[in-house]
Amino acid sequence: MGWMLLILVLFWTVMLIILPQLYMFDLSFHPNLPPPEMGGPKDHHTLENYKYLVFGAPGNEDGYNKVDLLVFVRTLIAAAFVTVIDLMLCYPIAYFLGQTKGGGFIRILVLLLIIPYWINEILRAFAFRIIFGDSGVINEFLILFSVIDSPIDFIRANVALYAGLGYAYILLMIFPMYNVIESLDRNQIEAARDMGASWVTIHRRVVIPYAKPGIASGCTMVFMLSAGALAAPQILGGPSSLWFTQLVYQWFNTGSNWTQASSYAIVLLGACLVIVLTVMRLFKVNMGDIGK
Amino acid sequence: MRDQPLLIRIGMSLYLLMFFTYLLGPLVLMGITAFNSASFPQISPWEIFSFEWFSKLFADDRILEGLKNSLYVGFFTVILSVSMGLAGALILTQIWPKLRATYYTLIIAPILVPGVVIGISTLVFWAEINRILGLSPDSFLANGIFLTVLGQSTFIASYCMLVFVARLQRYDIGLTEAALDLGASHLQAFRKIQLPFLFPAMASSAVLAFLASFENYNTSIFTHQKFATLTIILSQKVRYGIDPSISALAFIIVCLTVFFALLNEVRTRRAQLAVANGAPVGAVTSGFKAPSFFAGNPAAVVFALFVAGVVATVAISQVYDPEPAKSVLLKEKRAAQELRIQALQQRLKDKRLQKKMKGPDIFNEEKVGAKPKSPGAKTFGNVFAPNNLEDAAGSAKDKNGLKSKSPGVNTFGNVFAPTNLEDAAGSKKKDAPKE
Amino acid sequence: MSSGVSVDLQDMWIKFGDFVAVREANVNIKGGDFFSFLGPSGCGKTTILRAVSGFLEPSDGNILIGGENMIGKGPNERPTALIFQNLALFPLMKVWENIAFSMEVRGASAGERRKRADELLDMIALSDQGDKLPSELSGGQKQRVAIARALCAEPDVLLLDEPLSALDLKLRQHMRTELREIQKRVGITFIYITHDQGEALTMSDSVAVMKAGIIDQIADGKSIYDDPSTAFVASFVGENNCFRGKISKIIDGQAVIDSNRTGALRGRIATGAQGKLSVGDDAMMFIRPEGLSLTDKEASDTRIMAEVHHSEFEGQSYNVFLEGTEGKEMKMALTNRGEAQLFDAGSNLKISFDANQAVIVPVGELASE
User: Fold this and answer.
1) CA distance C289 to C240
2) In terms of residue numbers, what domain contains A42?
3) Which of A177, A194, A289, B192 could in theory staple to A214 by disulfide, Cβ–Cβ 3.0 to 4.6 A?
């Protein structure tokens, strides 16, 4: 029995978690070679893949790979933006659900929260296309009431993308916060109010500090998942705005350049980890609080 | 919340309403488009209430193939991730305390690693293993199902692990010790005491794992090779042109989700109520009595209504035949087209005439011709094309056709609703004094 | 059932890192005895029990059960059964399945198990409760099920880890009698852990009093109460008044201690302290509240003068609290004979005691309240 557990855990940690990441890390420092030449004389460690991301193709006149770098930075900023939007949207809901005394109504609301989460990511994005498309619900509606004459291109304006991304991970923001706030003793809030604290003060001094692990957990998840999203940008993204994961996918799929794709994936992973760990350090939250 | 200022309460209610509209609106709209016969998923203009997209969905080989692959992947992913998650959680309780934090970080990390990264790393790593072992490029290790299962399990096992850890935290290690003390071997103590305690967690983590696997895209897109899962097929369809059969699929998935979510809710709630009332546990699982089933259990009411709704919809789909209405619509469309052609010819004629003299009605006709789909087209057909009288009658039929669904709904209402309503009312009455 | 098997701890040490949980324990428990370990929480008594049952290995020394060394054997290989503090009934099994669990793991058939479980259910007077779940039983019933489950394993030694601590007072007192009866009926060795001296004294053949990993005294209940070996035992078991002073004389097992406050006082040197005290040593003398009485005697070495702080009426006795020694009030318990015996604060009383009821031990740490 014991050895079976050990084998399973070793397989998981070593063969699925550690070695693939390490191998991909190593691969990202290799030139892209056809399989027969792998391990051959042309196979050596090189920084070419990373140089490409920063400086572009050799002989690039700009000096920097502006397109890819821009996509990279924009992805991170947009993911942060989505995270903040989700946080602001969800905090009142999490507070309301967490502090209202039970009953079937709250349970039904929680259930309603869960349902969208189990609908396929693609279908959720698809729903937003139906809504925001040229002949989508919103445009039809606006035209029907003569607010506008010709459809607004929500896709190109990235409205659809942000709405879709925010929607996709909203649950991962609510639930960690809800779980923590639910365990907050109501008396603390009442005591604070009794002492004359305003609602703003109560939230700033009592609720938010208490909910910090939940907030950090939610933000971490939403940020990582948004930055790493692929389906929503593919379906809802405007033609001119790529997501960094789409670059990875292109290198991998269209370009069949695994080593280049690996280097981009490593950069994405590294950037996300650095940001998340920094935020966790700043807010003094532990790894153990994530995923509760 | 009761003693808050009215303003805050109203604001909160509005906010809740908006929030849940944002959350559920898209799904509802998508579901509705599944019943519109228009070839693009849309609500307006509404053409005809129709089930044709469902038939089209069930006839779509690629979707069925994707579904099959998804089920395969889901099955193996559930097995692998539940067992790895369980093993991971058990080892966490056993591991040397100094290693625990590191170990925990390691097994929770896959949740935080972007799916694309896991996908790529799984693929390149196993391709390398395949190469080192000297296997052919289409060997088992390079099989799309195998790779997808591994890739997905890498992080889904972490979810499962969290479920098990939460459950294990409530486990009294004294129970295992008691079993050992009574002569059980470690294996027996685990199998007879700890494992049964973990059964509920196994069930919920299996469901979690299956759902996560079923909807996974980011990882599978890199690992699937020839075995595209349903999600991947869907993404291809959505990217290269969307049609309402996807809405139909979404509608089915939403219904299934709602069904199981409500079912689960009803059962937990019932168990809770029974325990709260001090009933012996045996009574919870036995006997289905309608009044007590609904008592204090709004979820049960919703659940019953929902099931009735689905049954009714399916029943209607068997009885309801959109064909007449549809052929009418088709004819109408054709008529509109004809008219447009006529108008065009007329215009050409007019133009020819115009060269000689000015025609006054050109713009009118042009406008009309350009809007064949709009409801206005019908009136236009009647007025401007007396030879299309039949169509005019048809369009009246069309109206009937559209209406024909409402009698259906009424029947459903008569058949299913009254009992429900009574039950609902009854349960509410019972609820009232409690709350 | 087996007729009692002895348990011996030989020079047993248990350490957790630098922390010594049990120091050099030497205990010989006779077969068929009801033996208690008594001490405040954190004194190491549960650690000893876990070592006997096999959940942890002593750092040094031996554990013998029936003369056989148990070192290296797991809990499932020892002829012991442990009743856990929280009982640890298996929540998902029915009561009878819980009781017959030890047979289940040995591969007994369901019929055999049920039969044996029913016998034991009869014994604990829960005959028709076998098909319930533990959660449906009351506290006292659970208690008895835990005992039946342990007995079903037919252990040579039954270990009980504060099993009554979760019960309310009345039930606790009832269960004391019941436990003692069960022990007499089955005749096996019971080792009982408690911090409640009442439990230890009423039930046990022998009591070991522990503090901070050290066993201070092993004796029957009467000796523990009347003849404590150390200051700790004297102050932990029952109430006691402590007087501290220098030994000025030792005659015939009696000694006189001098202190500035009370003058010379004469008492008996504790059996466990004999030979450990000599003239000039610091020593402590303990007199129970009920060992003090009012007197008219002239000054002597069995008489104390003290000022009344306050007094209270407690039904069968009057408690008089007097200006005390060692930072504590001195308490005198006078039996209620129907005469008013409440004294005004500030009045001076002459108090005498019997030198044989005043026990002298070496200076040591007192039990905290």
Assistant:
1) 6
2) 1-46
3) A177
The dihedral of CA B415, B419, B422, B425: what is its sign?
A: negative
Domain spans of chain C, in order of start: 7-226, 231-362
Q: Which residues of B touch C75 (CB under 8 A)?
A: 177, 180-181
Burial of C271 (C-beta count, 10 Å sphere; 0-12/13-18/19+): middle
How many domains does chain A divide into?
A: 2
Using CB atoms, which residue from A96, A220, A288 is nearest to B16? A96
CATH topology of domain C7-226: Rossmann fold (3.40.50)
Residue of chain B whose alpha carbon sits nearest to that of C99: B182
Across the interface, whether the CB atoms of C81 and B175 are under 8 A apart is answered no
Tell if the CB–CB gap between A129 and B238 is shorter than 8 Å. Answer: yes
Q: Are residues A6 and A137 in the same domain?
A: no
Between chain A and chain B, how many beta carbons pairs sit less than 8 Å apart? 270
Asked if A269 and A153 touch (Cβ cutoff 8 Å), the reply is no
A264 and A166 both lie in a single domain: yes
Judgement on whether residues A81 and A208 belong to the same structural domain of the protein? yes
User: Which residues 126-145 of A are in CB contact (within 8 Å) with B?
Assistant: 126-131, 135-137, 140-141, 144
Q: Give the separation between CA C141 and CA C150, rounded to whole angstroms.
A: 14
Alpha-carbon radius of gyration of chain B: 30
The CATH-assigned architecture of domain B51-242 is Orthogonal Bundle (1.10)
Put residue A251 in one of left, alpha, beta given phi > 0 → left and psi -120 to 50 → alpha: alpha
Of the partner residues A128, A144, A265, the one whose CB lies closest to the CB of residue B117: A265
Any A CB within 8 A of B41 CB: yes
To the nearest whole Å, the CA of A5 is away from the closest chain B CA by 5
Contacts of B235 in chain A (CB under 8 A): 122, 231, 234-235
Q: Measuring CA to CA, which residue among C329, B26, B153 is closest to residue A12?
A: B153
Q: Does B46 lie at the interface with A, CB-CB under 8 angstroms?
A: no
Cis omega (within 30 of 0) for bond into A31 = no
Residue from the list A16, A93, A104 with its beta carbon closest to the beta carbon of B154: A16
Contact criterion met (CB < 8 Å) for A108 and B302: yes
The CATH code of the domain at C231-362 is 2.40.50.140
Which value does ipTM take for this structure? 0.85
The pTM of this model reads 0.74
Q: Is A123 within 8 Å of B221 when comparing Cβ atoms?
A: no
Q: In whole angstroms, give the CA distance from residue C253 to residue C234.
A: 18
For residues C148 and C121, the answer to whether their CB atoms sit within 8 Å is: yes
Question: Which residues of C lie closer than 8 Å to B, measured between beta carbons?
Answer: 53-55, 74-76, 80-82, 84, 86, 88, 90-92, 101-102, 104-106, 132-133, 135-136, 149-150, 152-153
Residues 6+ apart with CB under 8 A from C247: C255, C256, C257, C277, C278, C279, C280, C281, C282, C283, C360
Contacts of C84 in chain B (CB under 8 A): 174, 177-178
Q: Using CA atoms, how far apart are residues A166 and A80, in angstroms rounded to an integer?
A: 11
